[in-house]
Specification:
Blueprint (H helix, E strand, L loop, with lengths): L8 H9 L17 E2 L10 H17 L4 H4 L5 H13 L6 E4 L2 H19 L5 E5 L4 H14 L2 E5 L12 E7 L11 H10 L3 E5 L18 E4 L13 E5 L43 H15 L6 H24 L5 E2 L11 E6 L3 H10 L2 E2 L1 E3 L8 E6 L7 H17 L15
Parallel strand pairs: 1-11, 3-4, 3-5, 5-6, 6-7
Antiparallel strand pairs: 2-8, 7-8, 9-10, 10-13, 12-13
Helix pairs in contact: 1-11, 2-8, 4-8, 5-6, 9-11
The chain binds pyridoxal-5'-phosphate.
Length: 429
């Protein structure tokens, strides 16, 4: 139901005043005057990261050199940072490791899940997923299905549960869809999948740090996710891997490398996988990026005394609900549609607007006015274009939402978005 009372800037300022999390924004080095609504793509820079990375560069690398692998604890970073991530996943210490990127980690866990499922029941020949999953997930699934001679079945989200059967080996889903911001109920999907013996693999790229997660309660088998969105780990931050502890020691992951070996510094010629999640590492960890990610995680975990992920989620939903109310009041008339569910239990931390055309130019015109969102082109089945607005509850305020909508209205009313300079597409949209 649309909110019928006209929302004002004063209302939004009052919401900011009453926000118990508002001081957390001070942790970030955000540009003055910018409304940053793209933390679902690249999170903001925590001020602490500058000093920590500089220390690691100048002291640990510059002075400590090779000795820093031991003295500065570099070798433990994939686990110590993984333990911080575990706190956001409802996982236990030692269950998460940080390595590589989401695509590579997806390759590892999907490969293991496929091997496990087929070893148990060779008649399971299908990998099931959603048609509008993030493309890298689809490419990795396609590649692995070719290798393992399995069939990839891609469906629309509402059709998936009904297709679970004893022919399905693995169900691989993105928890929060990158286009629509729609979120699956992990617990009910996990239960339905396990009822027919299907293993679940979750991509948590748009969930970690944005919604409260509980992988054990959700009956998840494997999960991966990235560090550069709501975890504020910086551009290209490494990703994480979680596997249910009952699965970790059963199969080799396909990228068996020396950092996943039981004794990497024994330099043995044959591969002996480490036990537990450690075996999901492959090569040398990216130390400087791990240190930046560690700072990003601290910027999220600092909210624990204030209610942690539950409190962040409450604020995130209040922000997205406000955006949707303002959409009803001010944006519908400009030809936008809403791709994101109104039901708050079914949305992540972004709201996506649809538009038949002009979406890219509109986002560019908005960015010129200091409001940063992003754009995703129409899908291959003739879907609308998507304008995405992400609400990182650590640093986005209610007044930001008001200004974003206000500026979007001005962009549309003035027709400014039609200027030719906004039509020239850059590589990253
Ligand atoms: C859902 C999802 N999965 C995977 C990726 C890509 O991960 P990476 O480039 O770190 O491999 C993204 C990137 O935005 C994403 O949104």
């Amino acid at each position: 139901m649309a909110n019928t009372l006209r929302i004002t800037l004063d209302d939004c300022q009052a919401l900011d005043q009453a926000d118990p999390l508002r001081a957390l924004r001070e942790q970030f080095a955000l540009p003055q005057g910018m409304v940053y609504l793209d933390g679902n793509s690249l999170g903001a820079l925590p001020k602490a990261a500058k000093a920590r990375v500089q220390h690691a560069l100048v002291e640990q690398w510059g002075q400590g050199l090779i000795g820093s692998w031991n003295k500065a604890g570099w070798a433990q970073l994939p686990h110590s940072v993984g333990d911080k991530i575990a706190r956001l996943l409802g996982a236990r210490p030692g269950e998460v490791v940080v390595a590589d990127n989401t695509s590579v980690n997806l390759y590892k866990v999907l490969s293991v899940a496929m091997q496990m499922a087929v070893a148990e029941n060779p008649t399971r020949r299908v990998v099931l997923s959603e048609r509008l999953s993030f493309p890298t997930d689809l490419y990795i699934m396609e590649s692995l299905c070719r290798q393992h001679k399995l069939e990839l079945q891609l469906l629309d989200a509402p059709e998936i549960i009904a297709q679970l059967s004893d022919e399905v080996a693995v169900l691989a889903l993105t928890h929060v869809n990158y286009r629509s911001g729609e979120m699956y109920d992990m617990a009910s999907v996990g239960k339905a999948a396990h009822a027919v013996g299907v293993l679940t693999v979750w991509d948590l790229a748009h969930s970690i740090g944005a919604v409260a997660l509980d992988l054990h309660r959700g009956e998840a088998d494997f999960a991966v996710g990235c560090g550069y969105k709501y975890l504020n780990g910086g551009p290209g931050a490494p990703a994480f891997v979680w596997a249910h502890p009952r699965h970790t020691d059963r199969f080799w992951q396909p990228l068996a490398g020396w950092w996943g070996h039981a004794e990497p510094f024994a330099f043995k010629p044959d591969y002996q996988p480490a036990s537990g999640i450690t075996r999901f590492q492959s090569g040398t960890p990216p130390v400087l990026s791990l240190i930046a990610l560690d700072c990003g995680l601290d910027s999220v975990l600092v909210a624990e005394p204030l209610g942690g992920m539950a409190a962040l989620r409450t604020k995130s939903l209040a922000l997205s609900s406000l955006f949707i109310d303002l959409f009803d009041q001010r944006l519908v008339e400009h030809g936008f549609g809403l791709a994101t569910p109104r039901d708050s239990s079914r949305r992540g931390s972004q709201v996506s607007l649809t538009r038949a055309e002009g979406g890219y130019a509109i986002v560019q015109a908005l960015i010129e006015r200091g409001v940063v969102g992003d754009f995703r082109a129409a899908g291959q089945k003739g879907e609308d274009e998507i304008l995405r607005f992400g609400f990182a509850p650590l640093y986005v305020g209610f007044t930001d939402i008001w200004h974003a909508v206000d500026q979007l209205c001005e962009v549309m009313q003035s027709g400014q978005w039609k200027a030719s300079r906004f039509a020239q597409r850059q590589l990253v949209t």
